[in-house]
Amino acid sequence: MSEEQDRMRGRLPSPSSFVPRAPSTPTKPPLCPSRRFLSTTSSSAIRTPSPHFCPLPGTQLPPSSTMTKRFRSTGVYPSPSPELGERTEAFNSKVLQAEERMISRELKTKSEGGGRFIRIVEVSARDGLQNLPGPAVPTELKRELVERLLKAGLRNIEVGSFVRGDWVPQMADTPQLLPLLPPLTGQSLPLPSPPSTRPQTPEESGLGPSSLKHIIDSTLIPSSAGQVHFPVLVPNMKGLENLIKLQEQHSANGGGRLTDEVAVFVSATEAFSQANNHAPLAKILSSLPPVIDKARSLGYRVRGYVSCVITCPYSGSTPPEDVVDVALRLLQMGCYEISLGDTTGEGDPETWGRVWTECEKRGMDMSRVACHDTFSLALSSLLSLLPHNLTSIDSSLAGLGGCPYSPGATGNVPTEDVVYALHKLGYETGIDLDKLVECGNWLSGKLNRRNESRVGRAIWARRQAREVQEKGQGREGLKGGGSGSGEETEDGM
Questions:
Q1: pTM score, two decimals?
Q2: CB under 8 Å to 114, separation ≥6 — which residues?
Q3: Which candidate in 312, 359, 403, 439 is catalytic?
Q4: Residue 403 known to be catalytic
Q5: Residue range 465-482: average pLDDT?
């Protein structure tokens, strides 16, 4: 076959393709009506290239946004440590009082100290289990889960819901579970002692003490950090009355207080309110004041949940103004704090920034955020809010969770991932990461489900590898054989 025939069939390039050409301006791809975001490296607006997500109206971040300017000018998350300047001497004296702690026995890592305390609310026993299919999770397993979480340092643990059992079968045993829990409601427990040993000491590894240690400033951990709370969800007056009746029966038998905290919830959108609460949004809001007033009169503190703060599975993008309207109503009713829930898990740092900015503009002191981890941006979204005074985070062991009325909400942000990231950045939680990882792997095994925490899987794998190596070294030692270094690094986490 001739060369010309090969060229015509596309087997050889055309001679003109080898001729140098003057540089030309690259052709821009056609713009489609998709969501617009601001680039963190350029002041120009870009459009998302993915064709897989439905465009959501009203999701353009205003160019004048305070958060946009901060992210563009810094490029990194600001340090959690106090600013020095005139406070250098005070800061240095604090560091001298600090204790040292390893982030994990299985990691050689380094972090700066001096960070704020971030409270973790563990939701695996309620939100994590409520959406599981199949047979009900045994009540005894839930009891053991709560006890293991307490040993890991969690002190705020959601334990159940007083809802109709035919609507949420996994929560039907909440009245049986509460009396089985340790009678610690309102009491203060000491936080776990920091990890103090490792197979090889820092000196033996040749990396120096600071390569393994996480500096803890105990003066930054509030006295209330050890106080135990077992919140339960009460959707309406009937749910609260069922809790009150259970408490009366328990007290008549000589028992103490089962819980000192209840939670009410409401959607930021009308469509989700109809699906989740089976009632219009206005009716739900008007029904809550008597519930909150009665709970507070009996000594319960009340938290408020607002769901669908980023998007709604039925109506699309949620205007931040609507979110703040509902949150303000709950605060005015007497809720001591608000949990903002990204129910669909579609939030990202920029959309969360829009909600947070609206909260600040309306004068709200928001201290709580809950993220479902459907699209794996929950952790980055939470970290982006830390410089803006985020103080509490809702998370779930092993990433368990999801909402029965939000199709595709596949999980919560894993507590292990949150705690690891916070400790790595120098923040404090009062939680022992190794015990937490052990708890997550235990629960995943009991439920026969994949552990969705990447940190949990990685640390657990390294622990197993170390134990296998130690057993091998022990056998070699009996034979007079050699030994291995057994060093792990944080690369590839």
A1: 0.74
A2: 80, 81, 82, 91, 94, 95, 98, 215, 217, 220, 426
A3: 403
A4: yes
A5: 70
